[in-house]
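User: Last request for today: this protein with cobalt (II) ion, please.
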Amino acid sequence: MTAVTQPTTPFTDQRPGTSGLRKAVRVFETPHYLENFVQSIFDCLDGVAGATLVVGGDGRYHNRTAIRTILKMAAANGVARVVVGRDGILSTPAASCLIRKRRTLGGLILSASHNPGGPDGDFGIKYNAGNGGPAPEALTEAFFRRSRAIDAYRIVEAPDVDLGRVGTTDLAGMAVEVVDPVADYAEMVEGLFDTAAIRALFASGFRMVFDAMHAVTGPYAVEILEHRLGAPAGTVINGVPLEDFGGHHPDPNLAHAHDLVARMEGPDAPDFGAASDGDGDRNMVMGRGVFVSPSDSLAVLAANAAHVPAFAGGLTGVARSMPTSRAVDRVAQALGLACYETPTGWKFFGNLLDAGRIRLCGEESFGTGADHVREKDGLWAVLMWLNVLAARRLSVADIMAEHWRTYGRTYYGRHDYEGIEQAAADALIDDLRGRLPALAGQAAGGRRIAAADEFAYTDPVDGSRSERQGLRIAFEDGARIVYRLSGTGTSGATLRVYLERYEPDPARHGLSVEEALGDLAATAVELAGIVRHTGRTEPDVRT
Ligand code: VG1
Ligand code: CO
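Assistant: Here's the final one, the structure of the complex with cobalt (II) ion:
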């Protein structure tokens, strides 16, 4: 079999965003598009020849086609072995787990996360390094620079490998090892939790619903929750992964997880509800009659970590992305833990986890994780909650009420304006950036602004610097507004507006989020001139 060097012309739009290169499937189907980016990655890595790589994805449309191409390119680039999930399936946390367990050079994960799938949907690819985490910015920038200069890629001409059968086959001198996508991950998480307590909880009649949203976590959730932990059959709904996720957004939030929300609000609601996203790294948790905001979830898990065997040795520190609410900061302060604020995106947690400075971290966008892998992990977060519920034997509502009594409640909301013109979005941000220095001390919507700045981050471990990570306005009463543009969209720009307000008084912990944040939302619209810049009078999504 022969390796051929295929000439190509570089693409100019392959800069990785918050979570890798994410584009419409149609763009990935452009001749040489995927190949160009994959070769750029190989060209920037040290030690590709002779290396082992992990490859897998969330099973969406184009997953298998892309994997076949990647395998042939890996062989042509001298990779010795590729570990690939059966049928090309690996959830993002399972891929991270395999990279770490097998000590591979790294891995390629194919996913566009919660973005819709199918021929008219989105696709994505990202490189994770040997620690199992998303490549740091310096590396993704190197991929991008290479993608604009590259003029050829290498690929072997060979028949496709059968990805449907576990076992090792040869592809032009490279070993392709097809593995069960669930086994290693299931074994890892079983070692982290008090599984006997969780099994006893289910045996006591506790009921839950896990909505896999026809995305990658279905087989993981069935194996772990139903087979290993004894949850009744049928606990997992929408458990069969589909290439187009059944036509839905596999995005676990109140807007998109309708089947779960309907069950949790129905007459015979179970004790606990959860959902995960397209690639299995996000989570949403709910109790009967209560939705747990992701920022609160992080805070509750930090406060209750001592009930979980993996954290018996203590937490050392915690981290949250900047726009995530400061609920976890209050827990960290009370428990004497270090608390870090990072830019949006999981790659910034990696160094802190590797250095042992933190053991738990999360984002407001339904992402929670810990030091067992280097990705956020949806099913792991659900198991954390189950472990805490099993240890404490309280309802989710009681746990939340207790948490807010102890630490105060941080009301939180995010408003997204989607598909706005890039130029209008940039103008809005530039305009507000220019006005930031003058805002401190001014009154806005009945509050006084204490400080206004643009977030920049210096990594405390390697000293690398990330600028322009969101505009922040802090008020004297503890409320906060953050503005930033999404780095994961595939058409136009998305403006995200993050709102939070601290309420120490337990008598005022029963407000709806709308009641609690309505005036702050109006102030946010006003301060940034959202109507003037975008013509929009309402956000498209509120989470
Ligand atoms: C969004 C979220 C961010 C998350 C990222 C990737 O990014 O806000 O918190 O890390 O998605 O999540 P952005 O730039 O669109 O705000 V996933 O589940 O796509 O890996
Ligand atoms: Co995801």
